[in-house]
Amino acid sequence: MAFDPASLTYDARGLVPAIAQDHATGEVLMMAWMNAEAVARTLETGRVTYWSRSRQSFWVKGETSGHIQRLVELRIDCDRDCLLLLIEQVGPACHTHRRSCFYTAVREGAEQVFLDPMG
Question: Which domain holds residue 17?
Fold first, then answer.
């Protein structure tokens, strides 16, 4: 069956959350938003394209930083309202220069940063 990005369930803004996960390690790297066109562009090019809510424009991950994300596989959750992007990440995924955007844990009631920026 052919996939149609319009078959996904988008929120009122026309967006769906997309979780980027390293395809080799399983590490969750980041979460961002996609609209139907961003999904289509990602599938067409193999380069992950998100929708920037702040800039109201497409954002090809790594286009300016060089920290690109290559799509290995796109997965759809059971409700069709969230995507899992299995990717190959080049460099840090986070704008803070960390491998993952999820670098702060709450442990024993306190926040603890456990991941340093990459060199």
Answer: 5-93
* Total-model pTM: 0.94
116 marked as part of a ligand binding site: no
- Could you give the number of structural domains in the chain? 1
Which among 62, 93, 59, 71 is positioned nearest to 23, based on CA atoms? 71
- 81 annotated as belonging to a binding site for a ligand: yes
Question: Residues 42-69: pLDDT tens digits?
Answer: 999 999 999 999 999 999 999 999 999 9
82 annotated ligand binder? no
Look at residue 104 and tell me if it is in a domain: no
79 is in an annotated binding site: yes
Asked if residue 11 is part of any domain, the answer here is yes
